[in-house]
TrEMBL record:
Domain of life from the UniProt record: Eukaryota
GO MF term (any one): ATP-dependent protein folding chaperone
Sorted UniProt keywords: ATP-binding, Chaperone, Nucleotide-binding
Record family assignment: Belongs to the TCP-1 chaperonin family.
Gene3D superfamilies, A to Z: GroEL, GroEL-like equatorial domain, TCP-1-like chaperonin intermediate domain
SUPFAM superfamilies noted in UniProt: GroEL apical domain-like (SSF52029), GroEL equatorial domain-like (SSF48592), GroEL-intermediate domain like (SSF54849)
InterPro entries to which the protein is assigned, alphabetical: Chaperone_TCP-1, Chaperonin_TCP-1_CS, Cpn60/GroEL/TCP-1, GroEL-like_apical_dom_sf, GROEL-like_equatorial_sf, TCP-1-like_intermed_sf
Descriptive protein name: CCT-eta
Gene source species: Aphanomyces astaci (Crayfish plague agent)
Length: 255
């Protein structure tokens, strides 16, 4: 728990962890806890809590570790006095209810109908989350970008639909949002100068099959009564290929 305590907050410090042949610099609680060699069962529980928080929410990993560790610290004297664990659990659940009630009392609601106030609130929330990140000095640049990315999602808010592509070189302020699908590819093949770099409303082909005749992987036996039937089998195979080609015809971009 002490390993991540100093990473919390807007002035939290980064940790440099050398494990094996890899060196990691991070102030993310889940990343740090995942890299540490932890043996104690209670500490492993905190690691699992941190990873679950990261998977479910994507933030607050350090806070959940510190809160969980403090709960264990405060419960230790009562356990040593032979208090039943269920009594302690009930107390924590009651405290949780009081905390949730207090949060609901001080919460601020912003109606989505007021689009300006709603967006300003989202940008402030994004900026607060970025305060503890390496890009905190550019939070005014990234906050609108983050909000645009989230607002482009459906109502189910599937965060996995938002990805980050890292390109070496340049500045972090060269970052931009692509409202679509981004592929990290370089134009370094022969003849790329003549290839078009921009398409407007193109037909895109997503291809996961090979457009060629392939021999059967499994043993197959075909019995013919007439030698002329052999040609019909060959024609049927080619017709399958022609049908695929007809569906692909006209595509401007093939992925």
């Amino acid at each position: 728990m002490e390993s991540v305590r100093t990473t919390l907050g807007p002035r939290g410090m980064d940790k440099l962890i050398h494990k094996g042949n890899k060196t990691t610099i991070s102030n993310d609680g889940a990343t740090i806890m995942g890299l540490l060699d932890i043996v104690h069962p209670a500490a492993k529980t905190l690691v699992d809590i941190s990873l679950s928080q990261d998977a479910e929410v994507g933030d607050g990993t350090t806070s959940v570790v510190l809160l969980g560790g403090e709960f264990l610290r405060q419960a230790k004297p009562f356990i040593e006095e032979n208090m039943h664990p269920q009594t302690i659990i009930k107390s924590y659940r009651k405290a949780c209810q009081l905390a949730v009630q207090k949060i609901r009392e001080i919460q601020v609601r912003v109606s989505e109908t007021d689009s300006v106030a709603y967006r300003q609130m989202l940008e402030r929330v994004a900026g607060t989350a970025l305060n503890s990140k390496l890009i905190s000095s550019q939070k005014h640049f990234f906050s609108p970008m983050v909000v645009d990315a989230i607002l482009s999602l459906d109502t189910d808010m599937d965060i996995s639909m938002v990805g980050v592509k890292k390109v070496p070189g340049g500045s972090v302020t060269d970052s931009f949002l692509v409202k679509g699908v981004a592929f990290k590819k370089t134009f370094s093949y022969a003849g790329f100068e003549q290839m078009p770099k921009y398409f407007k409303n193109p037909k895109i082909l997503l291809l996961n099959v090979e457009l060629e005749l392939k021999s059967e992987k499994e043993n197959a036996e075909v019995r013919l009564d007439d030698p002329s039937q052999y040609q019909s089998i060959v024609d049927a195979e080619w017709n399958i290929i022609y049908d695929k080609l007809d569906k692909c015809s006209g595509a401007q971009i093939i992925l």
